[in-house]
Design goal:
This protein has about 450 residues and is mainly alpha-helical. The protein has 3 domains: about 190 residues, MFS general substrate transporter like domains (Growth Hormone, Chain: A, Up-down Bundle), CATH 1.20.1250; about 50 residues; about 190 residues, MFS general substrate transporter like domains (Growth Hormone, Chain: A, Up-down Bundle). The chain is about 75% helix and about 0% strand. It is built from 18 helices and no strands. The longest helix is centred in the middle third of the chain and has 31 residues. The protein starts with a helix and ends in a 17-residue tail after the last helix.
């Protein structure tokens, strides 16, 4: 194990790398109108930047576990940083749409590696009783990035140029890369793994169709392409699982689902990500269109969610001494449900927004830490792949569903009722961790 000071340094380096990724993702939608104007494009043509990004995500999302096992987590983290650095340079200096799309494609390649590999880089070197504290550190950028990004983007677009938003990332990512090279210990030796090309192609097409379906659904609710993509996604899902099961030593390991603890944890993770993705997308529309607040006032209120997230770090340190991850998540479900009801039924915003931000951060921290506690360390790379899938797909699906339902004119109380379902599923799933007949009180990781 590494010394506490080194672990602290590594934690903040990973956090800084994740901040740049979240910061960048939060401003791309704001850049599209300016991109369309500068390159004489329609807004739909500029929207191809989103497709380019998710195409890159689809290419590397199934590969995180395979690359980490074959080349080591340290090398994969450095590679992800270099991808992000190259993408930022291309986007900042782009003089055509093609170069900008290529830069966003490289950002996508980096994003689906940076988060799971960076997390694994820390988990390999700390004791289990420190998981929550470390997770609380690397969760902070996911909360600050979306807050700082739009504010800084507004300032730069009015006083300078949108290109500077990508140049800001360059020194931060360069610093992370150099620290990773100089300070990070060499990753542990891992067994040689085989690459299953057919299974990878199936998963690649599967993820591409999911992202395209979500994107087209967000653009047009009754899109024929969206419907066809979802149908094709279901078919590809069945084919992918059948093929990947043949090669459990390849880039994605389905054998982890033999553990009932892991299965319930994954259901909880996906449903929780879905809920928080949906609720964060719905709140700005609700405040602006239903409660008739100005966009600036709605933005200020949304910043309270980030404030609540920042408060989660001392809360984690205080409660970690006498509460387990399961209690953390059960507590977040109860508090989120109460805040959710208050926010959409009473003309009172500040406190529910802070509590929702606090609960979201606690959920992300606790759910990630719990995943590492229920499996043996030999399965950590596969675990990070599943966490990335939950983040990229289910959180995106929740966001899209909330936007689509609101755009379709569905009453707000009906939308909130529908979105309450994944929160209930999250609470039910984590409750199974308390059932004695499954022997879930045993803290020894399962050997699969």
């Amino acid at each position: 194990m590494s010394s506490p000071h080194r672990v602290g340094l590594l934690s903040w380096v990973v956090a800084l790398a994740l901040f740049t990724d979240n910061f960048d993702a939060s401003v791309v939608n704001l850049i599209l109108p300016m991109l369309a104007k500068e390159f004489s494009l329609t807004l739909n043509q500029a929207g191809n930047a989103l497709i380019a990004y998710y195409t890159g995500v689809a290419f590397t999302l199934p590969l995180g576990s395979f690359l980490s096992n074959k080349y080591g987590t340290k090398n994969c983290f450095i590679l992800a940083c270099l991808f992000f650095l190259a993408g930022s340079l291309l986007c900042g200096f782009a003089y055509s749409l093609f170069l900008f799309l290529l830069g966003r494609f490289l950002h996508g390649l980096s994003s689906s590696l940076l988060v799971p590999v960076g997390r694994n880089l820390l988990i390999e070197r700390i004791e289990k009783n420190h998981y929550l504290n470390v997770m609380s550190i690397i969760t902070i950028p996911a909360l600050i990035g979306p807050l700082v990004g739009p504010l800084l983007m507004g300032f730069l677009s009015e006083n300078h140029t949108w290109r500077y938003i990508f140049f800001i990332n360059i020194p931060m990512v360069t610093f992370c890369t150099l620290i990773a090279i100089k300070v990070y210990p060499v990753s542990k030796d891992t067994p040689t793994v085989s690459f299953f090309l057919t299974g990878y192609i199936y998963l690649l097409v599967l993820f591409l169709m999911i992202f395209l379906a979500l994107h087209s659904a967000g653009v047009k609710f009754q899109s024929v392409f969206s419907f066809a993509s979802i149908v094709f996604f279901v078919l590809m899902l069945g084919f992918s699982f059948s093929y990947v099961r043949m090669k459990t030593s390849s880039f994605i390991d389905l054998s982890v689902f033999r553990s009932r603890k892991f299965t319930f944890w994954f259901i909880m993770l996906c449903s929780g990500r879905f809920f928080y993705g949906a609720i964060l997308a719905l709140i700005p529309f609700y405040l602006h269109y239903c409660m008739h607040l100005t966009l600036s006032n709605a933005s200020y209120l949304m910043s309270l969610i980030a404030v609540g997230g920042l408060l989660s770090k001392p809360v984690v340190r205080f409660l970690n001494s006498f509460l387990s991850c399961e209690f953390f998540i059960l507590l977040t479900c109860i508090l989120s449900g109460a805040s959710y009801v208050v926010l959409f039924t009473i003309d009172f915003y500040a406190a529910p927004m802070i509590v929702l931000g606090l609960c979201r951060s606690l959920f992300m921290t606790s759910s990630n830490a719990m995943g590492y506690m229920v499996l043996d360390s030999s399965k950590y790379n596969s675990l990070s792949t599943y966490i990335a899938v939950a983040q990229q797909i289910f959180q995106g699906a929740g966001t899209t569903l909330a936007v689509v339902m609101f755009a379709a004119g569905i009453e707000i109380h009906n939308i909130t009722a529908v979105l309450f379902i994944p929160l209930l599923i999250t609470g039910i799933s984590v409750t199974f961790f308390f059932i004695k007949k499954f022997n879930l009180y045993n803290t020894t990781p399962e050997k699969l």
